[in-house]
Amino acid sequence: MQTATVKLYSLPYNNVKTYLAAILFVLGNLAMPQLFHLMPQGGVIWLPIYFFTLVGAYKYGWRVGLLTAVLSPLVNSALFGMPAMAVLPAILLKSVLLAVAAGYAASYFRKASPGLLLGVVLAYQMVGTLGEWAMKGDFWLAVQDFRIGIPGMLLQIFGGWLFINRIIRK
Fold it and tell me: Which of 5, 38, 68, 168 has a 20 to 30 Å separation from 160 between CA atoms?
């Protein structure tokens, strides 16, 4: 896959577009998990709660990403009971790490490629896994995304690249 020129933004908190974009990405993060949870273990395999956080942070900056990262799991948990309260801290940690990593990569490299998105996904997953291990004290639970969630990470990398470069290119 070739790297395409795409407009990347860093919207400030005092811009209404920041909140509109975040609301749209939160809505995406509400709908996507509902679809994937229709299949057995769809959430742990496909990691759908992170998809629009990655896209929002990469395309519109860390502020949109951070709003999406925090609101998506909280609203999903309040409305649908997923993620469960027991796993909510770990998911919030990984979501925030993803928003920061994606926002930083986009502002530093000013392009979106599968290789850069691979780096973002590995960064948030590795640091998030260490944080989850520290929180839960269970290494095997902490590495669950690496044991079961590889399809979800691939969806984030290649689906995220497609979404950023082809669907919301402008």
Answer: 38
| Cα 85 to Cα 100: distance, rounded to the nearest angstrom | 23
Average pLDDT over residues 129-141: 97
**Structural tokens at position 143:** 């590495």
Mean pLDDT of 150-166: 97
Q: Measured between alpha carbons, how far is 164 from 129 in angstroms, rounded to an integer?
A: 26
CATH of 16-167, one of 3.40.50.300, 1.10.1760.20, 1.10.290.10, 1.10.287.1080: 1.10.1760.20
pLDDT 10s digits, 69-107: 999 999 999 999 999 999 999 999 999 999 999 999 999
Domain ranges of the chain: 16-167
8 A C-beta contact, residue 74 and residue 29: no
pTM (two decimals): 0.95
Residue identified by tokens 């925030």 is 96
How far apart are the C-alpha atoms of 11 and 2, rounded to whole Å? 26
Give CA–CA dist 69/58, Å, rounded.
12
Per the structure block, which two tokens stand in for 82? 């997923």
